[in-house]
């Protein structure tokens, strides 16, 4: 049944105008529905589908919402903004197949109208790890996520653990700035051979894809020797990565991403260049 507000229960409705979507989600929330958001930059793969499946399983009368927006603010000047894949029709078909009810596809001018200048600043953690080689990246991520939270008004928002630092920073922002949103991390979806699913995997040649497997292999090998302590974990992972241009390989506390605490949950994180593509991955480690 299609409502006057641009929503049809059980079917997909696409909104490009953020204000129109806000009106719909507000009305639905008022009617007791739970708004669950999966923010994406499109090029949807199995990792995104898994996020949507998790979204649909959130208890309550859920309205699954996906945003598709390639956010220019989170790309550096020499990054892949212009060549980033934008297969909108295939993305909408994936959303339809997964039972998404609302999709937001704003234009850049909708999100950043002329004169836009206010930004969220990620702080110290935002300049570490990914932030060290991608200055300003997390300010861009947090700014767009804050805007999406305001536009969609979700009760719950889901993010992949593949971008673990991003997830930690979004949780921090929600606490620091009192967003009443429950942020949930979903485990990384992997190819059968271990490669973490990523929209950037399409850039890998057959040869690069083989070398890319070193990331997940190194992480698994490191995590397997966690009983011997942090140094052993890092040494083992480093051995597997030998020959690959690694940007960082770090073992951090799973909550704060500060120094790992013996006995606490930790996270082993890696970033490396494979051919022209920069890949990241991480796994949990119990020290
Ligand atoms: O993880 C992503 O795809 C993006 O960083 C996000 C969270 C959609 C913000 O643009």
From TrEMBL:
ATP binds at residues 41-48, 160-163, 189, 197-200. It is found in: Cytoplasm. Beta-alanine binds at residue 74. It catalyses: (R)-pantoate + beta-alanine + ATP = (R)-pantothenate + AMP + diphosphate + H(+). Its main location: cytoplasm. Belongs to the pantothenate synthetase family. Catalyzes the condensation of pantoate with beta-alanine in an ATP-dependent reaction via a pantoyl-adenylate intermediate. This is Pantothenate synthetase. The gene is panC.
């Amino acid at each position: 049944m299609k409502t006057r507000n641009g929503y049809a229960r059980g079917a997909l409705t696409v909104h490009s105008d953020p204000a129109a979507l806000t009106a719909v989600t507000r009305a639905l929330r008022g009617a007791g529905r739970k708004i669950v958001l999966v923010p994406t930059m499109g090029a949807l793969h199995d990792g995104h589908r898994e996020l949507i499946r998790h979204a649909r399983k959130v208890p309550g009368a859920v309205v699954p919402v996906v945003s598709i927006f390639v956010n220019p603010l989170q790309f550096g000047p020499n990054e892949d903004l212009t060549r980033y894949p934008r297969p909108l029709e295939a993305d909408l078909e994936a959303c339809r197949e997964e039972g998404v009810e609302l999709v937001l596809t704003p234009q850049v001018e909708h999100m950043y109208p002329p004169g836009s200048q206010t930004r969220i600043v990620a702080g110290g953690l935002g300049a570490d790890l990914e932030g060290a080689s991608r200055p300003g990246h997390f300010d861009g991520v947090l700014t767009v996520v804050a805007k999406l939270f305001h536009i969609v008004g979700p009760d719950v928002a889901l993010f992949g653990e593949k971008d673990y630092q991003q997830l930690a920073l979004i949780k921090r922002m929600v606490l620091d700035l009192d967003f009443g949103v429950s942020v949930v991390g979903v485990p990384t979806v992997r190819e059968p051979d271990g490669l973490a699913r990523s929209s950037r995997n399409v850039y890998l040649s057959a040869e690069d894809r083989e070398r890319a497997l070193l990331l997940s292999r190194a992480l698994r090998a490191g995590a397997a020797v966690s009983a011997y302590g942090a140094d052993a974990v890092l040494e083992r992972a480093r051995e597997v990565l030998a020959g690959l241009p690694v940007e960082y390989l770090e073992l951090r506390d799973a909550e704060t991403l500060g120094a790992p605490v013996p006995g606490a949950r930790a996270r082993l994180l890696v970033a490396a260049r494979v051919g022209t593509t920069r890949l990241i991955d991480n796994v949990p480690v119990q020290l």
